[in-house]
Amino acid sequence: MPVGTQGTVKSLTPRHLKDIGAQIILGNAYHLYLRPGQELVKKAGGLHGFMGWDRPILTDSGGFQVFSLAELRNIKEEGVSFQSHLDGSSHLFTPESVMRLEADLGADIIMCFDECIPYPATLEYAERSTGRTTRWARRCRDEFLSLNTGQALFGIVQGGTYPELRKRSAEELLEIGFEGYAIGGLAIGEPKEQTWEAIQTANTVLPGEKPRYMMGVGFPEDIIQGVSLGVDMFDCVMPTRNARNGSLFTSSGRLAMRNAKHFDDFAPVDPECDCYLCQNFSRAYLRHLYMSDEILASTLGTMHNLRFYLKMMEEIRQAIEQDGFDRWRKTFTDKYQRENGTEGA
After folding, report:
1. What is the DSSP letter of 118?
2. Which residues of 153-169 are buried (b: 16+ CB within 10 A; e: fewer)?
3. Residues 6+ apart with CB under 8 A from 35
4. Rounded distance, CA 152 to CA 156, Å?
5. What does the pLDDT read at residue 71?
6. How would DSSP label each residue in 156-199?
7. Under a CB-based contact definition with an 8 Å cutoff, are residues 171 and 197 in contact?
8. Beta strands in the chain (DSSP E)
9. Rounded to the nearest 5 degrees, what angle is found at the Cα of 187, between the Cα atoms of 300 and 152?
10. Contact assessment for residue 165 and residue 171, using Cβ atoms and an 8 Å cutoff
């Protein structure tokens, strides 16, 4: 899912997103609550009408954003009081208010309000926090059902790096019952092996017939590993953020487009890519745009990086349907890792 935190995927229009094959995009309830505010978005017909996007949208509840503003928030059983990172104003998020917020935003898939456990965290802290996430999930579900909006609500498995807590969290959410399940609180500094252990533990409990969503994880090789462990949905700012910084993903690794070696290279960024950039422009031209700080550099780079990710997912789905995922994975990673990182991207 391309990330459109504030109601826009940076540098792209909805038409661009459709052209590269985006089926669903992500917005963030925390940021949209602060600016422009849920009342305005609701008045505009929800996010779909406000941003001119007629395909599915998922909104994150803001739990991770509250976590990332650690010095400005206070977590209690009622909810989280916090200060806006924009103007310092005081606010309170509760499970009930977040459900009403996400209802007003009108996304197709909305997330429960949860507490993201920092890394590292003691077992005692993680246990207390995971229990609170479960209680908040029940309150979210009750409020969600009372609103009767027709949206889909996903629960979020927490538990930090403790497998027994991950298992317990997944079991408790399953008992409450949701339209889908996310695995949160990952890629925040923990070793990779603990990330995969958390995913594997949760997915031994979560039902395979419902969507399973790994939140905020984004290197291509990480997505492929997630798929192999049973994950269906992913989001990350990496393809868009990297594109704005001149780091592009290709079938043979990453390219740092500001490097001097691309000055007179008239080959496409990726000969195997079918995006607008690769079909029409050279590495030399794109480097020129980046070196000149032209806006078009971010637009073309973002289109390419997102198309790379979406095309990879299309190939993964096709490989799974043809019972050839392992073979596809070896072919893809052998080529991708052979040159990956050689330009310091």
Report:
1. P
2. bbbbbbbbbbbebbbbb
3. 6, 86
4. 13
5. 66
6. EE--TT-HHHHHHHHHHHHHH--SEEEE-S-SSS--HHHHHHHH
7. no
8. 25-28, 57-60, 73-75, 80-83, 90-93, 109-111, 152-157, 180-183, 212-214, 233-234, 247-250, 253-256
9. 80
10. no
User: What CATH number labels 14-236?
Assistant: 3.20.20.105
Domain ranges of the chain: 14-236, 241-339
* Cα separation, 219 vs 16, whole angstroms: 22
Q: Would residue 293 show up in a list of annotated catalytic residues for this protein? A: no
Adjacency order of strands within the sheet including 57-60: 25-28, 57-60, 109-111, 152-157, 180-183, 212-214, 233-234
Using an 8 Å Cβ cutoff, are 183 and 215 in contact?
yes
pLDDT, one tens digit per residue, over 242-282 is 999 999 999 999 999 999 999 999 999 999 999 999 999 99
Q: Mean pLDDT, 10 residues at a time, over the chain (345 residues)?
A: 98 98 97 97 98 98 80 90 91 97 98 96 98 98 98 98 98 98 95 97 98 95 98 97 98 97 98 98 98 98 98 98 98 83 47
Tell me, what's the pLDDT at 72?
84
C-beta separation of 76 from 125 below 8 A: no
Residue type, 36: P
Q: Which of 60, 104, 114, 270 is catalytic?
A: 60
| Residue 85 DSSP SS3 | coil
Q: What is the pLDDT of residue 63?
A: 86
Q: Is 108 noted as a catalytic residue in this protein?
A: no
Place of tokens 């496409």: 268
Catalytic residue among 104, 114, 222, 235: 235
Is the pTM for the entire model greater than 0.90? yes
Strands 253-256 and 247-250, by their bridges, are antiparallel
